[in-house]
UniProtKB/TrEMBL annotation:
This is Helix-turn-helix protein. Signal peptide: none annotated. GO terms for molecular function: DNA binding. It holds the Pfam family HTH_3. Residues 30-84 form the HTH cro/C1-type domain. PROSITE patterns: HTH_CROC1 (PS50943).
Amino acid sequence: MSDVLGWYDSLDDDIEYKAEAKKIDFACDISRRMNQLGMSKSDLAHAASTSNAYITKVLRGESNLTIESLVKFTEAVDGDLHIHISPKNAHVRWSEVITGGAYDKSVASVASVWVNKTLTNSHEGRYEA
């Protein structure tokens, strides 16, 4: 049992595991925006000027995306890409403020970052952008 827990804990330092998790996070974000917009995979492929097969790979988290392709897919779903680096122990929470109706072009994004230094240190900081 402790071998299993040790293996699981070792994933915290595994770059490949972290990269795969981020690809899946991105795929989920794109899929969520597609659902909000009523957009099909074919619609996304057309908007991103790519093939349906590549869209399937992206949505499965099977594609090694560049920053350029992240931006291209984000633009195709009328979104805005945010890349944010925070301390490892930070808890990050993103919220969106919708103005002028559901998911129209006047969406204002508000990012709030809540930082907890460590469990033993109760110092907290709040940053808004």
